[in-house]
Amino acid sequence: MRIVKLTPETRTNLLNDLLKRSPNHYSEYEKTVNEILENVRKKGDQALFAYTKKYDGFALDADNILVKEAEIQKACDSLDGNLLQVIRRSAENIRAFHQKQLRCSWFDTREDGSLLGMKFTPVERAGVYVPGGKAAYPSSVLMNVIPARVAGVKEIIMTTPPGADGKINPGTLAAAHIAGVDKIYKAGGAQAVAAMAFGTASIPKVDKLTGPGNIFVALAKKAVYGYVGIDSVAGPSEILVLADETANPRYVAADLLSQAEHDELASAILITTSKELAEQVSTEAEAFAGKLSRSEIIRKSLDNYGYILVAETMEDAIDAANEIASEHLEILTANPYEVMAKIRNAGAIFLGEYSSEPLGDYFAGPNHILPTNGTAKFFSPLNVEDFMKKTSIISYSAQALEKVHKEIELFAESEGLTAHANSIKVRFE
């Protein structure tokens, strides 16, 4: 991995480099995506079936689009029993964590007869997109579905692309069954996003659409926002490790590569105050890359977006981490809690040498659907409230309104909205 001294110039160059990976920079695909969306919006199932044949090689129709109970049971039976048990335990951890996010409606009454409050209501139907093929991740099924189920969503549907034989990854089906998906449809790509956003004869329109996918899925989600709610427009995976001289270089290298293996656009960055650690991590990363199964992807990822930045002080390192606002942030320092208190921007923070990033991906409980490409500055991990609507409640008695009606009328008239003022005034004529 390249080792670079952290300076204002190198930090700016790095940020510009990382932003190139954002879905906002792939406008060459937007025309294709928009054509797919428009065709599915106008032609429904006809377009959906045609695109599935074109891109997935499967002859989809109204009879085979819905995954049958027998297919789900067969998938569960085919999985290793130990793996199935791990998926169940992971689901329990995720459910327990997200249960703590539930908020109750609240109402504040006053002696003058006024009442203010906030009513929390789950969306009616949520749609989850799950990648297929080599990018099938049962863990993402759990992370998307369980928060929706905890929120109380009435119906949760899922789309995932079929293989040319019409089959779905068995781990994906098992995870969907454990998480509590109501219906699973064999459809993928931008066409599946369009089907859930607009509705077809086979796939119902959803209110909220979540889940990861390739650049076509990301751009499709971005385009349908407004027709439906979405979680976010996710970019490639990323990890940033903040470390001092106390960190274990072998652990740091292994953790960096855990994200580099996702794809060639994944980002793996170490910021450290120790030049010695930087050199050791570079050596260890090279050794690991040579023997891991996805070594080719790892090497390209590190060549493209792998960096080791050596900072003068930990404060400089922390400032850079806040500016990068990484999806995953590991803190491997003598006092990780002290450093954590100074972090303002990160999707998920992992503290200490035994809190490796994959712990969050698979098992701990917090959601692994996280903001990427610097959006941790204003986005949060997927959570229960993403599947709930907040409605304001306002009730004033005549006595309560009488005390303030002249003030409201004055405010409305100052904005030139005399009908607003009149709506209050007529009650006291």
If you had to describe this structure to a student in words, what would you say it looks like?
The chain is α/β, with parallel strands linked by helices and 429 residues long. The protein folds into three domains: 150 residues, Nitrogenase molybdenum iron protein domain (Rossmann fold, 3-Layer(aba) Sandwich), CATH 3.40.50; 204 residues, 3-Layer(aba) Sandwich (Rossmann fold); 33 residues, no CATH class. Helices cover 46% and strands 16% of the residues. The strands form three sheets. It has a six-stranded parallel beta sheet, sandwiched between helices. The longest helix has 19 residues. The radius of gyration is 25 Å and the shape is globular.
The general outline is globular
**Lateral arrangement of strands in the main beta sheet:** 1-11-10-9-12-13
Structural domain tally: 3
For the record, what CATH class of the largest domain applies?
Alpha Beta
Function: Catalyzes the sequential NAD-dependent oxidations of L-histidinol to L-histidinaldehyde and then to L-histidine.
Family: Belongs to the histidinol dehydrogenase family.
GO molecular function: histidinol dehydrogenase activity; NAD binding; zinc ion binding
InterPro entries: Ald_DH/histidinol_DH, Histidinol_DH_CS, Histidinol_DH_monofunct, Hstdl_DH
Summarize the entry for a quick read.
The chain has 429 residues and is of the alpha/beta class.
